[in-house]
Design goal:
Blueprint (H helix, E strand, L loop, with lengths): L6 H18 L4 H8 L2 H11 L9 H33 L19 H14 L12 H23 L8 H19 L11 H27 L4 H19 L10 H6 L1 H19 L4 H11 L1 H23 L21 H38 L1
Helix pairs in contact: 1-2, 1-3, 1-11, 1-12, 1-13, 1-14, 2-9, 3-6, 3-8, 3-11, 4-5, 4-6, 6-7, 6-8, 7-8, 8-11, 9-11, 13-14
Length: 382
């Protein structure tokens, strides 16, 4: 049975992408730690929310959707930024002096390096520009995690007796947690996955959590509709997430330790529920704010792709304001000087979200007008 459109999830994705842009903008440390606890798992959970068991018997359709929605956009934009990489050095957007907070910088690529990166892009969903495409790991993570979930689901169903088929989603999540525990405890890597596979395995777990949540969403929303239940549970979830962010910090870092792995599932799931509660409340009010978040959630792809390059507009302003070395525009993802002392992270957030959305909105409007013009011209000819 086809799933109906759920704008609550679109609102939640809109909130999540805004939180991602805030965290990448080097907001105050406590806020970044809080956001990192759940904002990327939230995307995997919302993706799993829309998984349907019909794909267990129509694998080709599911894989085709994943290729069209994740693999090809990744390849296209990774190649575009690959072509622009050396040119970005020529115009000063990138340089060999300023880079990330750890002091790492990029260098112009040789022709051989560019060829190797092209191979990596197509064969491993790697090889992308680390500074301009720093969030592109998510495309590979969700692509692998969703297909892996389908494969494991089919295998588990074959192993389970028919009467126990309903327990398959829970068993899958348990299997993935055990695999991640083994991997982080022993420091192992999935050698044929860029960065070792931790993000893909944990992403698959959270994808499964989203599918499980879908089965109970009607009951959950009914429970949250009781007097102040949504408010108090959300505050409780937020408090737990904050405590984890302060004392047991974790995120979907590909180098996560065993302790960080143990610290991630609880705040990630509670952070999703907190966001879902807020999203369901927003969804009940049909106003421009809801419309903006729905539009944002439906166009997260473009924010993922362009928010870092959009930051550069604010970096120019910050360079002028503080009289900084103009080459600091090459800082990844934003200028690090004064980042914990000022409010430039707010401007970075506005640009990182607003400019990509403005660009796609103008593109869609222009495309619609062009189609209308062609249709009008065709009718006049007839």
């Amino acid at each position: 049975m086809a799933l109906t459109r759920d704008t609550v999830i679109s609102v939640a994705k809109g909130i999540a992408i805004i939180l991602m842009v805030i965290a990448h903008a080097e907001a105050p440390g406590w806020l970044c730690k809080f956001i990192f606890e759940f904002h990327m798992p939230l995307f995997f959970i919302t993706a799993g929310f829309f998984f349907s068991t019909r794909y267990l018997h129509d694998e080709a359709t599911f894989v085709e959707k994943r290729v069209k929605g994740l693999y090809w956009p990744f390849v296209k934009w990774a190649l575009i930024f690959l072509i622009l990489h050396n040119w970005m050095f020529d115009i000063g957007i990138l340089n060999e002096v300023y880079g990330n907070e750890q002091g790492g910088v990029l260098h112009p690529w040789t022709w051989r390096q560019m060829q190797q990166n092209i191979w990596n892009i197509f064969t491993a969903m790697g090889g992308y520009d680390a500074f301009l495409c720093g969030a592109f790991w998510f495309f590979r993570g969700l692509f692998v995690a969703s297909i892996l979930y389908l494969i494991i689901y089919k295998v588990v169903l074959k192993l389970l007796p028919t009467r126990a088929a309903t327990s398959a989603p829970y068993l899958i999540c348990l299997i993935l947690l055990l695999l991640c525990a083994w991997k982080t405890w022993s420091g192992l890597k999935v050698v044929n996955l860029v960065q070792g596979g931790y993000r893909e395995l944990m992403g698959c777990f959270f994808f499964g959590i989203g599918f499980i949540f879908r089965q109970f969403v009607a009951t959950y929303r009914q429970q949250m509709s009781r007097h102040h239940a949504r408010l108090w549970t959300s505050l409780l979830f937020a408090a737990v997430v904050f405590l984890f962010s302060k004392y047991l910090t974790a995120n979907m870092n590909w180098r996560s330790s065993f302790q960080q792995f143990l610290s991630l599932p609880i705040p990630a799931i509670l952070g999703f529920l907190m966001t879902y509660n807020l999203s369901s409340w927003i969804d009940e009010h049909n106003n421009r704010f809801k419309q903006f978040l729905v539009y944002t959630g439906d166009h997260t792809l473009y924010v993922f792709i362009f928010h870092i390059i959009a930051y550069k507009t604010i970096s120019l302003l910050k360079i002028w304001y503080y009289g900084l070395d103009p080459r600091q525009i090459g800082c990844h993802m934003v200028i690090h000087d004064h980042s914990q002392d000022d409010w430039f992270w707010v401007l970075y957030t506005i640009a990182g979200v607003g400019l990509p959305l403005l660009g796609i909105w103008l593109y869609e409007k222009g495309k619609a007008r062009f189609r209308a013009y062609r249709a009008s011209s065709a009718s006049q000819v007839q």
